[in-house]
Amino acid sequence: MMVSPLFLLAILQGFTELFPVSSLGHSILVPALLHLEINRAAPWFLPFIVVLHVGTATALLLYFWRDWWSILKSLVRTRGQPLEPETRLFWRLVIGTVPAGLLGLALEKWVRSLFAGFVVAAIFLIINGVILGLGDRLKRRTAKQELDDLTLRQALFIGLAQATALLPGISRSGATLVSGLATGLNYEASARFSFLLATPIIAAAGLLEIPKLFLSHTGAGHLLGSILVAGVLAGACAWFSTWFLMRYFRKREVTALRPFALYCILAGTAALILHGISLH
Q1: How many structural domains are present in the chain?
Q2: Residue span of the structural domain in which 98 resides
Q3: CA distances from 140 to 181, 245, 247, 256, 257 (A)
Q4: Considering the entire predicted model, what is its pTM?
Q5: What is the pLDDT of residue 216?
Q6: Nearest of 139, 193, 137 to residue 161 by alpha carbon
Q7: φ/ψ of residue 36, rounded to 5
Q8: Residue 280 exposed, middle or buried by CB count within 10 Å (0-12, 13-18, 19+)
Q9: Comparing 86-90, 94-98, 223-227, 234-238, which segment has the lowest mean pLDDT?
Q10: In this predicted model, what pLDDT tens digit does every residue of 86-102 receive, in sequence order?
Q11: What does the alpha-carbon distance between residue 274 and residue 108 come to, in Å, rounded to a whole number?
Q12: How confident is the model at residue 130 (pLDDT cuts 50, 70, 90)?
């Protein structure tokens, strides 16, 4: 296998994991449309994907290190004391992480075996665009709260929405952004919670799977250097994505999700058309 497809997937992961356009959907559609020869059944492929996720999680930790450091300090300070805002945020992140964590462990392989096809991914990408379009309508009507106003019930709702990203074409960040808006959060608060919520899920996947890279039977020895470089590349793209989106959602009101909604609908439709042409 050539090295270049690894780097292409790294760039896709870095940008599409945090942009609300579905990294999983793009990892299915783009290689197929470009006729890239990627053996997803190879024993090194899952660890490779996890390294990309670890790069993304590292970028999120670096970008939001002040938030995580404040949360850590508050957990130490508030032992036996009234909860500080950062401690309350920590418990809301825990509540929001649980649904995707449990469903991911229990259903991920089953869901992806049912829905991993090209056509299904393209259809779900179109559905993702419709969901993002609805998010802009929600912003006009309800989104006013700051992150400190988030309740445990709202956090659980956002966590349940995050679990829908098991479906290829449905964006994890898009689902959490829109569900955050639906609970009443403004764009910036919804985006911050979405990105903070991504970190434990992505990091946990890395902790569970990355040791496979270093086992001889993975067959990844000759690709190990390229895989690690791809992880760094994914992290760099993810950091830039976070930097851009946090500023974008802070400045854009009402229609912030509209460009992503149009992109998903057009990209999914184009993928279906090209797929249909290729069959004839």
Answers
A1: 1
A2: 4-278
A3: 10, 19, 19, 11, 12
A4: 0.87
A5: 46
A6: 193
A7: -80, 135
A8: exposed
A9: 223-227
A10: 888 999 999 999 887 78
A11: 28
A12: very high
